[in-house]
Design a protein that fits this description.
Length: 122
């Protein structure tokens, strides 16, 4: 059975927020100043999709919390990557003029899934 997709998520303090709150401009580490370098950096963060065993509770972590614990689920990693893309687009608007999208949905093979996309504007 398919689980419904939610537009809100609970943070680690138990507060409910719109999912868009978790996507914020994030300054990447100093040596990661290209889109490819940021994508590589995020790919190095260990992935785990659940911090807990209770399937009824769905907690999302902020970008900084993921970096502090050196691990994140697919949603948090997508939000972190989008945050890096947003930062680069703001800092270098002529080089990285783009719109950032996170696709959050359901996949027959993976269940709930998420992807971060950088769509270049011409």
């Amino acid at each position: 059975t398919r689980n419904p997709l939610h537009i809100t998520a609970m943070d680690c303090n138990g507060k409910e927020w719109f999912i868009s709150r978790f996507v914020r401009s994030q300054n990447p580490p100093t040596s990661f100043n290209t889109l490819d370098a940021c994508a590589h950096y995020v790919s190095l963060i260990p992935s785990f999709d659940r911090w807990y065993k209770n399937e009824d509770i769905d907690i999302w972590c902020s970008n900084q919390q993921c970096l502090n614990v050196l691990g994140a689920g697919s949603r948090e990693r997508a939000a972190l990557l989008a945050g890096y893309f947003l930062f680069l687009g703001t800092k270098f608007p002529l080089k990285y003029k783009a719109r950032i999208f996170i696709a959050y949905g359901f996949s027959e093979s993976q269940g709930q899934t998420v992807r971060s996309h950088n769509i270049k504007l011409f």
